[in-house]
Structures are given as structure tokens and as C-alpha cells.
Specification:
Blueprint (H helix, E strand, L loop, with lengths): L1 H25 L9 H8 L4 E2 L2 E2 L11 H13 L17 H5 L6 E4 L5 E5 L2 E5 L32 E5 L10 H7 L3 E7 L3 H6 L7 E4 L4 E4 L2 E6 L19 E5 L4 E4 L8 H9 L4 E5 L14 H11 L4 E4 L13 H13 L11 E3 L16
Parallel strand pairs: 5-6, 6-7, 7-8, 12-13, 13-14
Antiparallel strand pairs: 1-2, 3-4, 3-15, 4-5, 9-10, 10-11, 11-12
Length: 373
């Protein structure tokens, strides 16, 4: 009897291993691989050695066994107010709202780091992670705080540009790209991320890979890819095989900055000196912890980063949609609002789906809407 039981357990383990291996090997979620020609390109970037991209400043990503065990235990236990008490319904927009031509620069936040930027009559989606779970499989993560988006992908009009900051699942979502790719004229991505898009059958002509400090013009807009202090990877063995970073979108009148993910460092001052001032800076603010502060800013650092950039207004992103760290879901916005006030940095906190205009003469949304959840 014991022999049969052990055989059964062994069989179950073997099945799990086979399924896991098959998923890791064949699932399109993990993206593409890099050819020798690709690697040769990366080696010329100045930010790649020994098979990996690296940060401008030394950044240790390794966690001690004691810290790792403590972190896993904390995740298992959860945190107080880790999620909203109820679903957060977004403000709804329509395709007609976006198609309508005017001279205004407008922003609509989709939660987390995803937003729509309408500038000079162009539609730009930034880090359009529109899936319900920020993971390669629904079993591997918690669901989004809202069941719906301000506008579902199927209802979206044509998009001029999609910008990607890096290839982590909460910023680059395979299913979202699959649904978007035929609507999009161009994808601007970090060096190496193009391999994922090629694997997902996005035409080569639409893929624009960029190195830090590269500049490209597209439909009268200027795109600059700038550094951040972070890392990359989608699988078990591809850490730092693609680059990560922040973005600048410069139109006829407005200059917009998006931080991507990353820890606080001197790159904010350098970017501000080279390309500032910025009319609006989207600053990562959420999913942080003392144990990984080198790769995710604390809220107070997010506010200071906006000051360093010489931003006129900052908007905290990377919160409001997923629980990916060990803080309450409102901690980011509460702390960054307080920090911004102490630094004299104007801040805007729109609701998910709320469209606002980027302009010196407007009043930016500053609701405390999260208190209702």
C-alpha cells in the first residue's frame, strides 16, 4: 500500500515537472530569445557586459537567505489594507473621446503605470499592461483591483505609438500586445525588448529599439530613451538580458517624462539638466520595500526625483491596480502627497479613467478618491 502511495506521489511530481517545463519552454508569455547578432548589438551599447545589461551605478539585486525567507513569510501573511475593500470602477471613456481632434495635451490613467497620452493629435499608450494579473499565468498573481478598464482594448481606436519601459509582467503584457499590435503604428522599446515583439509576430518595421540617450523622431514627436536604476527579465534565466529605462516625449509645446521603474539615483538630475524642465513627470511610486530600495523608490524619493527633474507637476504611478509589495495599497499616494507638499512640488492624483489637460493654466485633479475604498 505504501509503495503504491509513493508511486502515486512520484507520478504527480513528474506530471507537475513536465507541465512546468512545457509551460516555461513553449508559452509565448516569456517572449523571444537573442541571436548572436542581437548580442553583438547589445555589446556596442556601453551598458552590456558578460551577457547582461547593467545600471549606471552599482546595484545589488541579490537578497540574503534570511531576507528572502522573511520576505516570503511576509507575503504569505499579507499586510493590513493590502487591497481595496471593494472593486474600483474606473471612469469610462470612449473611442470618440480619443479620436476627437484638438490642440490639447491630455492624459488618462489606466492604473499602475499604464496611461494614454494625447499630444499633438497623436495617441500614445505607455506600458499598456491591461491584463487582470501581472504574471505569466493567472495562478501566479492576484487580480487587478478593477474588473474593467476605462476603455477596453477591443474598443480602442488606432494608436500611433506604444512605449515600453522594460519587460517585467506588470509593464509588458503578452495578451495586451496581441490585442493591440494591429492597432499600433510603432512600438518604442528598450534595447533587447524587440526580441519579444518579434516572437509575438509584430512586424519588424514597427519595432524601434533604443539605447539610453538615444533620440528618435516620429510623426513630429521626439522620443528620448533615458536611464533608470532597475533590472529586467521574464523567465528563470533571463535576468538583465534586456535593457530598462525611462522616457521623454517632446511635442510642439509640452515636454513629458515617464520614470519607468527604478531606485533613486543621480540620473534624475542629469536628465533634468539635459532635457528639462518637464511640464509633467510620471513618477514610479509603489511596490517598494526597504529590502529592494535600490530598484524601487520610496514615495519620498519619488517626490525628490520630480524636483531633481525640474518638473512643473508630478503624477505618482505604479500603484492603484495591483498588490505587488508589502505595504498597504494607499501607502504610496498618502506618503508621496505629503512629501510633495513638503518639497513644494505640485502633484496630481486623478482617478483611474479621469482625463485631464496638461497646461500651465489648468487646475490638476487632486482628489483623495482612494479614501472611499
Amino acid at each position: 500500500m505504501l509503495k503504491k502511495f509513493l508511486l502515486f506521489i512520484f507520478s504527480i511530481i513528474c506530471i507537475i515537472i513536465v507541465i512546468g517545463f512545457g509551460f516555461l519552454t513553449f508559452s509565448p508569455q516569456f517572449g523571444g530569445t537573442h541571436s548572436e547578432a542581437d548580442i553583438h548589438r547589445y555589446e556596442k551599447s556601453g551598458h552590456y557586459k558578460e551577457g547582461e545589461f547593467f545600471n549606471l551605478v552599482d546595484t545589488n539585486l541579490d537578497m540574503s537567505l534570511s531576507n528572502l525567507w522573511a520576505t516570503l513569510k511576509e507575503f504569505a501573511e499579507g499586510v493590513q489594507n493590502g487591497r481595496p475593500t471593494k472593486d474600483i470602477p474606473p471612469i469610462k471613456i470612449t473611442a470618440e473621446d480619443i479620436i476627437k481632434k484638438d490642440t490639447l495635451t491630455k492624459v488618462t490613467w489606466f492604473g499602475h503605470s499604464a496611461f494614454l497620452l494625447e499630444i499633438d493629435n497623436k495617441n500614445i499608450l505607455v506600458d499598456p499592461m491591461f491584463g487582470q494579473v501581472a504574471a505569466p499565468h493567472p495562478w501566479l498573481g492576484e487580480a487587478r483591483y478593477s474588473k474593467h478598464l476605462p476603455l477596453e482594448i477591443e474598443e480602442m481606436p488606432d494608436i500611433d505609438v506604444v512605449i515600453i519601459s522594460h519587460d517585467h509582467y506588470d509593464h509588458l503584457d503578452y495578451e495586451s500586445i496581441e490585442k493591440l499590435k494591429d492597432k499600433v503604428s510603432a512600438f518604442f522599446v528598450p534595447l533587447g525588448v524587440g526580441a519579444h515583439f518579434r516572437a509575438w509576430d509584430v512586424p519588424e518595421s514597427k519595432i524601434h529599439e533604443m539605447n539610453w540617450w538615444d533620440t528618435q523622431s516620429f510623426k513630429d514627436l521626439q522620443f528620448v530613451f533615458t536611464p533608470s536604476r532597475h533590472f529586467s527579465g521574464r523567465g528563470l534565466s533571463d535576468r538583465n538580458k534586456t535593457l530598462w529605462g525611462s522616457w521623454i516625449v517632446k511635442g510642439r509645446h509640452e515636454n513629458i517624462y515617464f520614470s519607468g521603474d527604478g531606485g533613486y539615483a543621480d540620473h534624475f538630475k542629469e536628465i533634468g539638466q539635459k532635457y528639462g524642465p518637464f511640464d509633467l513627470a510620471f513618477m514610479e511610486c509603489g511596490q517598494y520595500n526597504d529590502k529592494w530600495a535600490a530598484i524601487h523608490m520610496m514615495p519620498e524619493e519619488s517626490a525628490q526625483g520630480a524636483v531633481d527633474l525640474n518638473a512643473k507637476v508630478m503624477m505618482p504611478v505604479h500603484w492603484g491596480a495591483f498588490t505587488l509589495a508589502l505595504h498597504s495599497w494607499t501607502d504610496p499616494v498618502v506618503r508621496v502627497t505629503k512629501a510633495a507638499k513638503s518639497l513644494g512640488m505640485p502633484i496630481t492624483t486623478p482617478q483611474i479613467g479621469e482625463t485631464f489637460v496638461v497646461n500651465d493654466s489648468v487646475s490638476y485633479p487632486a482628489h483623495r478618491w482612494w479614501e472611499a475604498y
